[in-house]
Design a protein that fits this description.
Layout (H helix, E strand, L loop, with lengths): L51 E6 L3 H12 L4 E7 L2 H10 L4 E5 L8 H9 L3 E6 L6 H10 L3 E4 L4 H12 L4 E2 L1 H12 L17 H11 L4 H8 L3 H15 L4 H11 L5
Parallel strand pairs: 1-2, 1-3, 3-4, 4-5, 5-6
Helix pairs in contact: 2-3, 3-4, 4-6, 7-9, 7-10, 8-9
Organism: Geodermatophilus saharensis
GO biological process, one term: regulation of DNA-templated transcription
InterPro entries: CheY-like_superfamily (IPR011006), NreC/VraR/RcsB-like_REC (IPR058245), Sig_transdc_resp-reg_C-effctor (IPR016032), Sig_transdc_resp-reg_receiver (IPR001789), Tscrpt_reg_LuxR_C (IPR000792), WalR-like (IPR039420)
């Protein structure tokens, strides 16, 4: 038998009934329903009303950027505007709700005092960062009469600045005790220059003072590094230099000395 005599055998095609759940060949059925997506959980954001809204009035860019970094590191604070002069601060405060204005002392004196008075009378709290002066009594009296309720040395550490801003947001005064002493001396005898005794911390540089004050608050070197945005090695270097200048041999002795000398922020 040759190959032509062999019938082609084809397997019979099985016929499957089209019942429920089956699809005819070549027929595109309805798309399979996808499972419902999981609901998106909204981020737990603070309502804007809970933030302390701050305006920076500072004409030195590096210092202004530093203030912003320090204040916005706090979860309850937001810098909403910046300006380099008091007229700009007055205008910005009219456009954006502001609770606290932080301003350099040199920007709120002399011809700008009427603007400062206007800003305070609007209900905005002002924190003046005072610069070193031989006789600061008269300038202090002027800004207090204008309505200022916050007054700190410009070289204050970050923690004191934050505490003062929080106090002013609660409509509390935040005046450094060294300024209070100068004010008392000035009122007792306006003609006599205020002689402020040297403080222990005045022997340190600004950064050494920041580190020493945070040590006195009980912070570790790692915590200080994070707070001041410094490397751990830099913190240790400042700490060693501070202890050498103040003649102490341990962190405990340094903390005791700083707490005796430090003026409270409020």
């Amino acid at each position: 038998m040759n190959s032509d005599d062999v019938p082609n055998r084809v397997a019979p095609r099985l016929h499957r009934p089209h019942g429920p759940g089956t699809t005819a060949p070549g027929h595109v059925g309805p798309p399979r329903a996808r499972p419902a997506p999981r609901p998106v959980r909204p981020l737990l954001a603070r309502p804007p009303s809970s933030l302390v809204r701050i305006l920076l009035c500072e004409d030195q860019e590096v210092f202004r950027l530093g203030l912003r970094v320090v204040l916005e590191a706090e979860p309850d604070m937001a810098v909403v505007a910046e300006t380099e002069h008091l007229p700009g601060a007055l205008s910005a405060a009219a456009d954006v709700p502001v609770q606290v204005v932080v301003a350099r002392q040199g920007l709120v004196e002399g011809a700008t005092l009427p603007l400062l008075r206007d800003l305070c009378h609007r209900g905005t709290s002002v924190l003046v960062l005072a610069e070193r002066r031989e006789d600061p009594g008269a300038e202090l009296v002027e800004v207090l009469r204008a309505g200022v309720r916050g007054y700190l040395p410009r070289r204050s550490c970050a923690a004191r600045l934050v505490e003062a801003v929080r106090a002013l947001s609660r409509h509390e005064a935040a005046i450094d005790s060294s300024a209070t002493s100068q004010l008392v001396r000035y009122l007792a005898d306006p003609a006599a220059p205020a002689q402020v005794p040297e403080r222990v911390l005045d022997r340190l540089t600004d950064r050494q003072r920041d580190v020493a004050e945070l040590v006195a608050q009980g912070l570790s070197n790692e915590e200080i590094a994070r707070r001041l945005f410094l490397s751990l090695a830099t913190v240790k270097s400042h700490l060693t230099a501070s202890m050498r200048r103040l003649g102490v041999r341990s962190r405990t002795q340094l903390a005791i000395l700083v707490n005796r000398d430090r003026s409270p922020a409020l």
